[in-house]
Amino acid sequence: MPKQTFFNLPEQKRNMLLKAAEMEFTRVPFFEASIANIVKTAAISRGSFYQYFEDKDDLYFYLLEDKLKMAKTYFSVLLEKHQGDLIEALIELQNFFLLALSDEEEKQFLKNALLYTTHRVESSFASIWDTYLEQEEFKKVGKLIDQDLLNIHAEKELLHIFKIVSAIAFNNLIEKTAKGLSDEEAIESFKLSMSLLKHGIYNSEVQDK
Amino acid sequence: MPKQTFFNLPEQKRNMLLKAAEMEFTRVPFFEASIANIVKTAAISRGSFYQYFEDKDDLYFYLLEDKLKMAKTYFSVLLEKHQGDLIEALIELQNFFLLALSDEEEKQFLKNALLYTTHRVESSFASIWDTYLEQEEFKKVGKLIDQDLLNIHAEKELLHIFKIVSAIAFNNLIEKTAKGLSDEEAIESFKLSMSLLKHGIYNSEVQDK
DNA sequence: TTGACATATGACACAGTGTCATATATTATT
DNA sequence: AATAATATATGACACTGTGTCATATGTCAA
């Protein structure tokens, strides 16, 4: 988390800095991004930077989480829209990410995030559903999913389903980015994954051994 | 890929260098690892290093792929053992990785790989099944799975299943490492994921809309 | 006006990377 | 055996980057 000093800053200066950071992290992936560049663009001194942030991580994840906030709230909307159908909502959320990847700037930023960062980035993405697993909203949505559509017996399993789909979704984004798939190919791929997940990959005729 | 010069090296020297690299990448994650440390331990000059390798990446992924080779061949054995039952084989393969995570040295190396690296690392892990998708062996194994147990209609879907399970498996390793789960908890979690995947997460009573 | 506190600054010590001119082996050719 | 041609080795060096710190400058309350 940025230090208090950062939040005390006049809004304009704060935005200037964030904008500069965004530019730098769009230009190159995290590990190549240089603080020197950021402070230069933002027209602040190097020393000041360290008054605001612990280090590069601190700034980066603040920025990333901020960008993902929108996705979080959007997912709520989608779940409502699809009457609690998890998979349908997810497919549309994935579409949203793919769309974001169409704006050239956002595209590059996300690409840098997806390809060159790590467990922490993945966690940030996964945290989109964190809210559901803790909050009131979860009960509402959870119940809706639970009773109507899903093949689950305990809350633990629902949590697992979230884990599985987020792993697949994240993977799908990486695949698209790494292999340069088109939006259509990527969403096709995601839909197929979701369909397999929906009905299971084992033939139901053959039962468990 | 390391340069030819590296492969021309006397075996002892080559191993010395690999050993030194392994030590460094066990000590700290990739981005903190320093070439200076490696050449010091290996008792070669800095210049020599760049005769052998393009850069740090080059060495690192050579080392990582090498370590994963074992897993690749092991997976063949497991598939045979479980008569082509993909999921059962996978569960045992996951066990193998978890076991590797018990040797303190290997544990730290893998931890550094899982937490601090990226798409390329994930690709390396996923490449465990690459062989199956290209080679002769695939046909053997593929057919076995295809006809007996899985609910798939085209080869494309089998490829997808590999993608899905590898995403989940990789995720499971990261989860274990990041949250410090015990081997038992991790494998329990993986089994649950696999079970959900097997039978699908949607209730079969309610059919597709 | 003063003092206390918050913020700003850039020079600096340190650590790391990749390169290059030069030195030293090794191997091939006469 | 002498020489040429080729491959390998070396570490100093130019460069880029980080995080810190002593010092300067603002701000606000008493």
Automatic annotation (TrEMBL), chains A, B:
Coiled coil: none annotated. Pfam families: TetR_C_19, TetR_N. It comes from Mesobacillus subterraneus. The keyword Transmembrane helix does not apply. This is TetR family transcriptional regulator. Keywords: DNA-binding. Residues 34-53 bind DNA. Residues 11-71 form the HTH tetR-type domain. The keyword DNA-binding applies. GO terms for molecular function: DNA binding. InterPro entries: Homeodomain-like_sf, HTH_TetR. Transmembrane segments: none annotated. Gene3D superfamilies: Tetracycline Repressor, domain 2 (1.10.357.10).
